[in-house]
Specification:
Length: 173
């Protein structure tokens, strides 16, 4: 299953459980608008220009349970993994932790940096990034460059910063 790569900017894959806010986040990054999204079947892709010299090709891959076996098809040429979690939904953290562990176990992602985005920080009951990183067991990934940041796709908070950090992680790795 080959995917056509149209640009030479580094490929960044956005993954996470369904309803984590991945498509909202991508639409917000690319257009500055909040879009009505429906569950992603397959993927969305776009090129994000961070500044004059830096752009990233960002793939947002469907997160429903039935879609997750397909995640591995998107990992070729992946330079960074962005894993989005809904920080307002602690009940799904164990499932997110398992999904993350599984995808990071793939050989293709061996030295690939990870950015975890704790989305929906605009909601009053959202977990702190410390809680999210504990729930996802991020400290166990000591052999990998990783960062965690809070953001709100709906409000557009923290997105630009997060992807600037992703770009820096790619350069470091």
């Amino acid at each position: 299953m080959g995917l056509a790569h149209s640009s030479n900017s580094p490929q960044v894959i956005v993954m996470g459980l369904d309803s984590a806010g991945k498509s909202t986040l991508l639409a917000r990054l690319l257009t500055g608008q909040v879009m009505e999204t429906s569950p992603t079947i397959g993927f969305n892709v776009g090129t994000l220009d961070l500044d004059k010299k830096t752009s990233l090709t960002v793939w947002d891959v469907g997160g429903q349970k039935s879609m997750r076996p397909n995640w591995k098809f998107y990992l070729d040429d992946c330079k960074a993994l962005v894993f989005v979690v809904d920080s307002s939904d602690p009940t799904r953290m164990p499932e997110a932790q398992k999904a993350l562990k599984k995808v990071l176990g793939d050989e293709k992602l061996r030295r690939i940096p990870l950015m975890v985005l704790a989305n929906k920080k605009d909601l009053p009951n959202s977990m702190t990034i410390r809680e999210v990183s504990r729930q996802l067991d991020l400290n166990s990934y000591s052999d990998r460059l990783w960062e965690i940041q809070a953001c709100s796709a709906l409000k557009g908070l923290g997105l630009q910063q997060a992807f600037m950090s992703v770009s820096k992680l790619i350069k470091k790795s």
